[in-house]
Amino acid sequence: MQKKQFKTSMTPSRIHIIGKGAIGLLLSYYLANKSNNLVTLCQRKKREEFTFSYQKLNLIEKINLTFDNVHEDKISFLIIPTKSYDVVTAFLSIKARLTDNAVIILCHNGMGTIEKIEPLLSQKQSLFFLTTTMGAFKKNNNLLIHTGSGPSSLGAINQSAIKHKISVFKFLANSIPHMSLSENIQQLLWRKLMINIAINPLSAIFNVKNGALNQPQFALKIFQLLYEAYLVANKEGVKLSFPEILNSAYTVMAATDQNYSSMNRDLNLGNKTEISAISGYIVNLAKQHNIEAPHNKDVYSILSAQYKK
Question: Can you give the residue ranges of the Ketopantoate reductase N-terminal domain (predicted)?
């Protein structure tokens, strides 16, 4: 059943989403089908328009999308749910079309993109980051399978976003389930990174579903990967509770036990992974702080080498 469209001072006439990856299509489904928003899918090159469908258990619905094949309309509300390594390229491809007070929302695994995007914005443009533990994958080019539910959280990055965060949050929360608004963006980003570190590399290297990582043979490796990241976070001034980090990682594993992580899928399909923005990010910061991070370095090396084969 569709909700009535929620109106705020920041309610856009149209939502633009870049790319046709699983999370982008999942957000499109909730924003278009659940609240009757007008959602336009941006493709970096003019391509054939697909019909995308959403499936959860026995429910199958067409995702109500339009396609941005003109590349001329102004963009006031933009979501970039691409791979971390594609974020800057995706942003630059539409930067000239952004309105002076546009809302830009990043949504990806890992870290390292905010410091590249924020300097490119004007003073009135608002930058947010959206994290989600929802799980989905594309069974084929046209069919999205929703495999796991979970909380999503929005955080404001710059001053303009802080000013408008309540309106943007209420607008999104009207469509996307289990939404929360984070008042501490660094905590939000690092907690998401910790979950990525615990699940993505090992699920890819050992080719297992998320739930398999609950098995005892993975416990020490997960502990080591997370503890290295925890030490780096402390040096970065981000105070986290290590027991809470471990608990959160295992909670997400259990909630998404039948999911394959995005890194697992990328590796199996021969695609580039986001390991540079996850364990690679930790390795680089550890080096700056003179911290040893051999376990993150190992998984980073393994997965980087796998892609190059």
Answer: 15-158
